[in-house]
Design a protein that fits this description.
CATH topology: Glutaredoxin
Number of domains: 1
Strand order of the largest sheet: 1-3-2-4-5
Helix content: 40-55%
CATH class: Alpha Beta
Length: 165
């Protein structure tokens, strides 16, 4: 009797494992340039986490037109699912325009069709790269040291004012 139970339990486990693995492989990963709306439509967890996140420290980036942020992440990555919606909410709250934010999806090997993972020396996801006039001035890799807001404030504080012509 115990052998039958063990046999059927093993069969059920195997069927579940095969189905779970094929469901994971069949899920379309968003790779390359991605729009926020596309991300939210394809992966509702990103949208719900964006909507539920409460920004704790206000940052004002409305006048910082020389700044931009590149967000490299994986739709398959649990750290990305946690941190990317938060960063998007923070940047929206800070007044950063959508044209200043680039979302780049990578696959499980951390590559994307344009090879920018090499250009940006991508090692972990997500990686938030702060640029000033196209030059990297800092990054937050995988998770913040303090909080996303604090880390972003510290990165922007270190920037000297841009000289006006």
């Amino acid at each position: 009797m115990n052998n039958k139970i063990l046999f059927f339990s093993s069969i059920i486990f195997l069927i579940f494992f095969i189905n779970a693995d094929s469901a994971y492989k069949s899920k379309k990963f968003l790779i390359g340039d991605i729009k926020v709306d596309e991300l939210f439509n394809e992966y509702p967890i990103f949208k719900s986490r964006y909507e539920n996140y409460k920004v704790t420290q206000q940052i004002d980036l409305r006048e910082s037109t020389e700044l931009s942020v590149i967000i490299t992440f994986g739709t398959w990555c649990h750290d990305s699912k946690r941190e990317v919606p938060r960063m998007l909410k923070i940047l929206d709250s800070a007044g950063m325009k959508s044209e200043q934010i680039s979302l780049i999806g990578v696959d499980v090997n951390k590559t994307e069709p344009n090879g920018r993972e090499q250009l940006y020396n991508l090692k972990n996801t997500p990686t938030f790269i702060l640029l000033r006039n196209g030059t990297e001035v800092g990054r937050i890799v995988e998770r913040p040291q303090i909080s996303l807001e604090s880390d972003l404030i510290n990165l922007t504080k270190s920037l000297a004012p841009v000289a006006e012509d």
